[in-house]
Every structure is written in structure tokens, then in C-alpha cells.
Fold:
Amino acid sequence: MSEFEYDLFTIGAGSGGVRASRVAAAHGAKVAVAEEYRVGGTCVIRGCVPKKMLVYASMFADDLAHPENYGWTVDEKSFDWATLRDFVQKDVTRLEGLYGKTLASHEVEVFDERATITGPNSVRLASGREITAKYILAATGGRPAMPDFPGVEHCISSNEIFHLEEQPGCLMVAGGGYIAMEFAGIFNALGSDVHVINRTDRILRAYDEQIVERMLHIAMGRGINFHMHTLIQKVEKLDDGGLLVDLGEANPVKVDQVLIAAGRDPNTEGLGLENAGIELGRKGEIPVDDHSRTSCPSIYAVGDVTDRVALTPVAIREGQAFADSVFGGNPHTVDYSAIPSAVFSQPPLAGVGMTEAEARAEYGNIKVYSSDFRPMKNIFNPHPERGLFKMVVEATSKKVLGVHMIGPESPEILQVAAVAVKAGLTKQAFDDTIALHPSMAEELVLLK
Ligand code: NDP
Structure:
């Protein structure tokens, strides 16, 4: 008989926590999870999944702009935000149910309440019950960072935007990262007037500059207003429900909603880590080693709360590695090299490996191959937007160091290119591959 009630107690049923819990249970561990909000975490409940559904909806708006080119006559067009919002939320609830079922089918016990760490092997539930576990896994994710300016309480974050009562006629987005670019694209395509407020003149810093420049050019062409080198000074709520935003310029701007998309903070507040002697990092994250172990040997942490790479598939890999290592007799760590990522802007952009600037700084001698093309689909929606694919290659070995692209479906294409980059293939391997015609992906094997 174990001296503990559970082998593993996981705090947080998001992507990392659910994977770790169900794999640990499959390895024979007795597992419980505490989740204070909804099973599924940020990605499923208020992140990747509902966001991508909204992206599809906004792409439909794009296609609907010129139905006659497809041979359709559409007499009346009108868009209802509430219908889309409810449809998306229905699917979120369906997925939440599936996640719950997965945990149940692995006999993982779920406590729908907050849990706090009270010691190296104990947690306390909000209801007061004290539980002991051989191991504790903190998988509490992150939350939107809200800057400090007067009236910030009138602004919303990505948590609230999915639930808006009405579509904002005018939406202001503060930030120049993933969330800002994705929601600016969504609401612009759905017909809102969109203003992006960015504190410098750079957006999407982690991505290849030339690709980002193309995105910016297209976004401006689509009518998104960018205010660079600008910070929100103050937001005032007006009697008619609108918001008056002071940008430190002569005239304040009146908008319907202000979305703050200024990064995310690790969710460690009130988690009780100090009761196990764990000190937080500079950003409030839980410091861990390569095996996701904290300074307390019985407590591990995975996902956004560790502030390593804040992406769902990475959290899942960390959860899997933790469970296999601790409960499956198969110790392994996560390989963080060549992680592909994408921004679901309109059009989307995606990248893997080194950007041109990173490769130049590290290798000096590089060669860049590119293709600047007009996607065939854009003939139906007459606009001049061009796709751009780039391959960054080490000049001597011809090894592909990075692939970067912007254009319709680029995340779908990039995922496959990421296999080649991860495998260390050379440009010759791409050249040797016969093109699949007609496709956008074929540009990858025709790069000059
Ligand atoms: P990001 O880190 O992508 O971007 C934050 C943006 O906010 C940057 O432009 C940053 O500017 C700016 N900023 C930071 N602090 C302030 C401030 N005080 N005032 C004004 N601007 C500020 O964060 P997001 O919130 O967009 O997304 C959070 C994370 O969620 C991402 O990092 C990503 O890991 C994940 N995510 C991933 C998605 C995907 O994979 N497609 C989609 C959505 C989110 P600066 O560059 O100057 O620092």
C-alpha cells in the first residue's frame, strides 16, 4: 500500500496536464486532476480551437466577397456575430466533453475546483479537502498580461473576445504578437473597423522580417489601421457604452472594444509553490530542468507555466515525456529544435528553423532562395496579394536552416517542410523532388 492517496496529482487540465495524466494512468498510476475552470485548458476552451474556427469564418467572408466569380448569385448577404459565436462555443463544449471522457476512460479522477500546493506531497482543494500524492504536476498554463494604465478594466483580453455580446463596429487591438494579428485579421474580415496599437515598429518579432513585412503590407491593404510607436495612455468609458482611447495624440479615438494582446503571464499566483520551497523565476514562471522537474524532487511542471515555448504541441510533448519518464520506465526529454509555428493571420504565415537574420548572424555564409507568387485562388477574389516562400540554406553544406512562408494554407504546407528541416535535409533533396502541380506547395521544390 502506498503511503499516498494518489501516485500523481495534476493541477490544471489543459493540453499538458491532460496528456500527462492520461499517459501516467495508462502506465498504471493512480491519478487525479484538479481544474478550476473547464477541462481542455486555454487551447481548447479559449485559444487555438475557437480562434481557428473564427479564422475559417472570416475566410468564408473573403470568399463571399465575389460569389459571382464562382458562378453563384447570392442575393442578400448579412453576417450575425451571435450565430457564429454560439456555433463555435457549441463545438468547444463538445470538445470539452471529449477531453473529460478521455480522462474518465483512463480512470483519472477529476476535481472541478482549485487546488493549492501545501507541501512537497500534498495539495488542498478549494472545498477544504487535503490530498496526498507521490508526485504533483503543475500544469496551470498562463493568463493574459494586462498592462497598467487608467481604464484598463474597460478592456478585454482573449478570454472575453470569444463571448462578446455584439460584434464591435470598431475594435482596437493593443499588441503586435500572435493574438493581435490573428484577431485583427478575423474582425477585419468580418467587417469591423480595426486599429492595431503597437509600441515599436516591429510586429511578430520571432518571424522572418521579410515575411512579416509582407503580412503588414497585405493587412494594411485590407484596411487594418496600424499605429506604430504608440501606447495606450488611458481608456474612458462613455455613457453610450463606447470607449474613448487616449493614445497620447491630439485626438482620442472612439472605439467599441479594446482587446489587450500584450503577452501572457505564467499562472502561479496563489499556487502555493512556496510551501514546497520552490522559488519562482523572473516572470513568475516555475523553473524546471530538462525533465520538467522543479527544485522540489516530487513536483514537476509542464506547459506555459514554465515559460519555455508557449505552444500547445510543446506542452503535450512535455506532458508525455514527464509521464513516460516518471511512470513508464522510459526516461526521455523534449527536443526543442526546429519547432514549427504559425500565425493564423489573413493570409497566414508560418516558419520553422532559423530566420534569414538569425542564420546570417550564426553562419555568416548563407544563401536564401525564394519564390514570390500570386496564389491561384486569389484570381477568384481579385486582390493583388502575393505569397512568399523563403528557404534559408547554409552556403557550403547546402543544409536547409529554415523555411518561412506567407500565403493561403501556408501552415498546412509548413508542417511538412518542418519534417525536412528537422531531418537536416539539404536544398538538393527539395530540388530532387518532382513538383505536385498545380499547388502552392510545389513552390518549395522550385525555389530559385
Ligand atoms: P506575444 O508574445 O506573441 O506578443 C506580445 C505583443 O505585445 C508584442 O508585440 C509585444 O511587443 C507587445 N507588448 C508586450 N507588453 C506590452 C505592453 N506593456 N504594452 C504594449 N504592448 C506590449 O503575445 P500574445 O499575447 O499575442 O500571445 C501570447 C502567447 O500565446 C504567444 O507568445 C504564443 O506563445 C501563444 N499563441 C500562439 C498562437 C499560435 O501558435 N498561432 C496564437 C495565439 C497565441 P514587443 O514585441 O515590443 O515586446
